[in-house]
Amino acid sequence: MKHMLKLATVAVVATLGLAPASRALAADCGTAETVTIAEMTWLSAGTLAHVAQKIMATGYGCDAQLIPGDTVPTATSMLTKSEPDVAPELWVSTAQSIWDQTQEKGNVYKASDIFASGGEEGWWIPDYIAEAHPEIQSVEDLKANWAIFADASNPEKGRLYGCPPGWGCEIITNNLFKALGLEETWELFPSGSGETLKASIAKAVTRKEPFIGYYWGPTDVIGKYHLVRVGMPAFDAEKFKCLTDAACASPEVTGWAVGEVAVAVVTSLKERAPDVAEFLGKMQVPNKEISDVLAWGDDNGATTEEVAVYFLKTYESIWTQWVPADVADKVRAAL
What we know:
three-stranded antiparallel β-sheet; D-Maltodextrin-Binding Protein, domain 2; alpha+beta
């Protein structure tokens, strides 16, 4: 009997002794400071920002807050000010020169590649234009075929829809336009905003009219409107680096590489919030699934926050791989 009581006492002591250790292993934010997350202006980036914010706030107990952002301004701010703390969808390839400076400085790192198959950028045309005009195989064929894309408001030139202001692709498109020598036969038409560009595509496709302009994937737009990427020469790293520089004196034609799209994080977050940094290191979405999520958001007129909630509710098999079980439980409960 005494032997049994002794064993029971040892068991209780052992259990009590383990309790604090178990609690210590539970993931938490690790910092009382606000963790800032860049919410960029397009649907996928805004959605992923809300996903990260909800996981940090409800799963880790962080004071996680979204702040407005866009590729070049956010990359520049991370370089010069080490803020925001996180950019869940930073297109490195469109801000290469700035990104290289952050790597040299060491204050920002890539926690993960957010898209499993990388990003795809370029100039796109609808499938019916590609079928009707097989002579357009490459961007180098555009100079001679401008008349296909002439707009009634300016029938003497083809219309190429450029990037919205402030996006990294704006600099690349402007430089590529010069490198191809399109000034005489084309107008580089300003898109105004991401939503305006998307509306221009929808309008043209609905009316079966010609369209050519910048876009990227994964996104609902590419699949929904059956866009075909115009061919480009092979990627040349040195030429492309110059295309990303607004001061590039002599831009040369080169293709886009498969986009490096980073979960960009300020290095200090590793020390301030190691559990959160570990989560960000696992944050990655398959291209097809995120395109499906974005298509749902577009079809339902959902906000980026609503799309994030839809993702968290519908694709548990993806995001629960990023976090410990206790964090996943807290996120589910909050939903």
